Predict the structure of Metallophosphoesterase.
Amino acid sequence: MSSEKDIMAANVKTSIIILSDTHGMALDRKIPNQVADVCIHAGDLTEASKLEEFRSAVTLLRGIDAPLKLVIAGNHDFTLDTASFQSKIRQIKPPLEPDLVKKFYGDYEEARQLLVDAKEHGIHLLNEGTHDFVLHNGARLRVYASPYTPSLGGDWGFQYHPGQGHDFAIKDGTNIVVTHGPPRGVLDRTHTRDRAGCPDLFAAVARAKPQIHCFGHIHEGWGAKLVAWRRKLSENPSFLADIDNSESVLVEQLSTLHESQFDTPQDAASKNEKLEKHTAQKYCSASYPENDVGSKTLFVNASVKGDSETDLHLPWIVHMMLPRGSDTVTRADGSMGQHATDRTRVANAISCSDSGPDTEAMTATQAGEKCLEADHTGMDTQCKLRKQTGRKRALEVEQTALQKRRFCDAK
Ligand SMILES: [Zn+2]
């Protein structure tokens, strides 16, 4: 977690535990016991979308030591996609007994409600769109989330036909993109060596150039790669034309940790040593270089499940710097200063799962923050006044956002 010195800096050190595709597994004693600022789960919380599996996923997330846990759905979590769930039930012949459906899957929206109720444990289920947060450590985080994956058939949740594509509307200033599926060309190879990622997603990420893009879905594509972008992007960016391979670095993938028949004895020994070390600490780690914002993206495929329940891949812990999001309220001992309540309210005000960020709240918050930063450098009366006005305005906007969210929740 952040030290007092970090808190005074313009950017804030932030650690993120990333995992995906846990498929209802309890993962007892197999998750990192590190403390992080944020935890991200990139979908496939369950194998068959049963209520029991969602409960198990919530237990798993509660066992991770991070104050904010961001979760998206995956194709396996089809009961979170009510239209798909209804169509799946309709297609079953002969029709299933409604009581039986209810027993395993719950009523329509029940699984979603279970996750919404988990907000009291810091768990936020993100719908497709942009979400802004001010973190416990004072950093501002903008996330774009999408559970949608391409599929030629089947009736899983949140899918589109690859021929029709999908619009991934990633906004400027997005720090982290969280999708269930990989982009075409990066950590997306299947066992048959096919590339299963989505080209539309690759193009959207290349244009937005977030610091991190994390995902899962293609379990065997597990790994991390720091990708350098070409200075001038193609009109329709693709992995073939727009990645500068000479400046890109593969952090790790399954083949760099597991020995193969082609390895020399020395290579095999060094892989085994590396794997043993990572397994003992229960994670692999990567850092996003602070000076590479806008020129590189760290891609992370965090699929935990491998080919079976016993073949597990390690979660990731990623370290990055994020811009300060508010005045200094988190002390080195982790306690909250006097503005903590304001900041928490603002964080709530600018996060509305169904509509993306509230632009008015953001503007008011930023106006307030500009002056709030002056706390550390000594502040003149005019700035003090602007600071009070900014905070008052942010609180007013919070009221409006809360009403809006009630509307979102009711939808
Ligand atoms: Zn999966």
Q: What stands out?
A: Confidence is low (pLDDT under 50) at residues 327-411. Residues 11-323 form a domain with the Purple Acid Phosphatase; chain A, domain 2 fold (CATH 3.60.21.10). Residues 21, 23, 44, 74, 76, 217, 219 surround zinc ion (CB under 6 Å).
